[in-house]
Amino acid sequence: MNKALFLDRDGTIIKEMMSTAAAGDKSKYVTGVDQVELIEGADKAIASAKEAGYKVIVITNQAAIARGWLTEETLHLVNQKMFDLLTQHDPDAIIDDLYYSPYHVDGIIEKYKKESPWRKPGIGMILEAQKKHNVNLSESYFIGDTYEDMITAGNAGTKKILVMTGFGEIAYRKCLDEKLKIDFIAKDLLEAVNFITTK
């Protein structure tokens, strides 16, 4: 079986749209190719994880699709821009797979307006990846910048690493309040991968 690093996208690999607007505000979401910017060291982190024998799989909620602010076609362009930037910086920074959840109960696009086990902290995306890539979840890690990412990791039975990029500081306080145990708290994705590969 394979070991995997399940990575959140926004705030972990690419920069989060750090709007102070409400959750239902378009400015909180990456909705265009021109907004894609790598977090420093993300390319080296992914290349190191690959070299260490890990599958690298992105797991991302994309409620902007349900809200009508992003089409699946544009999402694919955004993801492709991220893939291109990673390999331009380091040819070995290759992501094995990416899963996204377009669902949200407050959506306006009818087919996406629902609860779904594919939406984090549900583990539908992870279970699909586990089956496709033959992943041993107990030997794998989930790395993200939100409290929901850490809950997802717990639900899936992976180890939890919280990064301080994106919404990491807010998530850290929430984890403390909820007494949620984290396996490692990293400055960024690169430090997270260094922790994993040097253990």
Number of individual domains: 1
What's the architecture in CATH terms? 3-Layer(aba) Sandwich
Distance between the termini: 20 Å
Q: What is the residue-averaged pLDDT?
A: 96
Name the poorly predicted regions.
none
CATH class: Alpha Beta
Q: Specify the number of helices.
A: 7
Helices and strands, in order, run as EHEHHEHEHEHEH
The amount of helix comes to 25-40%
Decide which structural class fits the backbone: alpha/beta
- Which fold name fills CATH's third level, the topology? Rossmann fold
How many DSSP E strands?
6
Strand order of the largest sheet: 3-2-1-4-5-6
The CATH H-level superfamily is HAD superfamily/HAD-like
User: Tell me, what's the shape?
Assistant: globular
Main sheet: strands, sense, barrel: 6 strands, parallel
> How large a portion of the residues is in β-strands, by DSSP E?
5-15%
Mind telling me the C-alpha Rg?
16 Å
Tell me about this structure.
The protein has 199 residues and is an alpha/beta fold. The chain has one domain (4-197): Rossmann fold (3-Layer(aba) Sandwich), CATH 3.40.50. The protein has 7 helices and 6 strands; from the N terminus they run E-H-E-H-H-E-H-E-H-E-H-E-H. The chain has helices at residues 42-51, 63-66, 72-89, 124-133, 147-156, 168-177, 189-197, and strands spanning 4-7, 55-61, 97-101, 141-144, 159-163, 184-186. The longest helix is centred in the middle third of the chain and has 18 residues, at 72-89. The mean pLDDT is 96.
